[in-house]
Amino acid sequence: MNWSVIIPLILFTVAIFLIGLWSSRYVKHSSNFLQEYFLGSRELGGFILAMTMVATYGSASSFIGGPGVAYTQGLGWVLLAMAQVATGYFTLMVLGKKFAIYARKYNAITLIDFLRSRYNNSKGVALISAFSIIIFLFSAMTAQWVGGARLIESLTGLNYTSALFIFAVAVLVYVIIGGFRAVVVTDTLQGVVMVGGTLVILIGTIIAGGGISNIMADLVAENPNLVTPYGHDGGLTPAYVSSFWILVGVGVVALPQVTVRAMSYKKLSCHAPSLNNRNHRCRIYHARDAFNRCLCKTDHTWN
To answer: 248 phi and psi, to 5 degrees?
Structure first.
């Protein structure tokens, strides 16, 4: 076993357990259990809102699935993924403000509450939305659990079953005992780790690659299409890119795990700092994509 990885993993797991315990005190002493457990009593500030948005949206697909695609497609995939920068504006400025106002008006706790009240207490809308969330969100979450387990497996040398058990127990414990407040605070911790780790990797990659110009030259030598918007084989067509931008830049607004963040912030003034923080982090992630993932195609080696 790789103890240099396992020890930080244990410390991180203990930290999120402590966050769960800390958050459980708010649940116990809250005068409104549902508001506190599912929305954190609508007390999210700008920084926490930004971090929980990033940690929720920048999940296994961004850190596990995305690198493999960028390795194959080159900088075209980075350009395509930049649609995520605009996602914050759509989610918080287009949806978030009005969504939060009406959610408070309807006293909605969940997305299903909101839809039912918005459509004249329609049971049909409530049932359809509930079944849709259960079916499709369950499928999406399965990928996250598999991704987390595979990551722990690759880093620690544990078998997949043990890694999945650790991941599942850690998540279930702090969510069950701490509710939504525990989720967003652990998201903030994870967001800080993600941003810090990404900066270290980005800077180290540029140094290891001999500078940005040298990295670009190596990519061109490997395959000139790697530095074009169209992918290594021209497969990133305008139709493909535009459909992806609609899916990622606009369609994400409807994700339940994203919309609930729009229901839980403290006040509208939280929007501006959260948007700036979130979009700066998205740009850092994509800069890392450009130089770190594509650097794997060059002949440089790490010492």
So the answer is: -85, -35
Residues 275, 261: Cα–Cα separation, whole Å:
13
Cα–Cα distance for residue pair 39/265, rounded to 1 Å: 9
Give residues with Cβ within 8 angstroms of 116, minimum separation 6: 122, 123, 125, 126, 129
* CB contact at 8 A, 261 and 254: no
Tokens in use for 187?
């998201």
DSSP helix/strand/coil, 274:
helix
| Selection from 208, 174, 195, 234 nearest residue 301 by Cα | 208
> Which residues, 6 or more positions from 84, have their beta carbon under 8 angstroms from its beta carbon?
57, 248, 249, 282, 286
CA nearest 277: which of 290, 265, 289?
A: 265
SS3 4: helix
Model confidence, pTM: 0.78
CA 236 – CA 217 distance, rounded (Å): 22
Q: How far is CA 175 from CA 8, 94, 111, 143, 300, in A?
A: 21, 29, 18, 19, 43
Residue type, 61: S
In contact, 134 and 301? CB cutoff 8 Å: no
- CB contact at 8 A, 209 and 218: yes
Token representation of residue 204 = 């180290």
Q: How is residue 109 annotated by DSSP?
A: -
Per-residue pLDDT 10s for the chain (303 aa) are 677 778 888 888 899 999 999 999 999 888 889 888 988 888 887 788 777 877 776 666 677 777 777 778 888 888 777 777 776 666 667 777 778 888 888 888 888 898 899 898 888 999 998 898 888 878 878 878 888 888 888 888 888 998 888 888 888 888 899 999 999 899 888 888 888 887 888 888 888 888 888 888 888 888 888 888 888 888 888 888 888 877 776 667 677 877 788 788 776 555 555 555 555 555 555 555 555 555 555 444 433
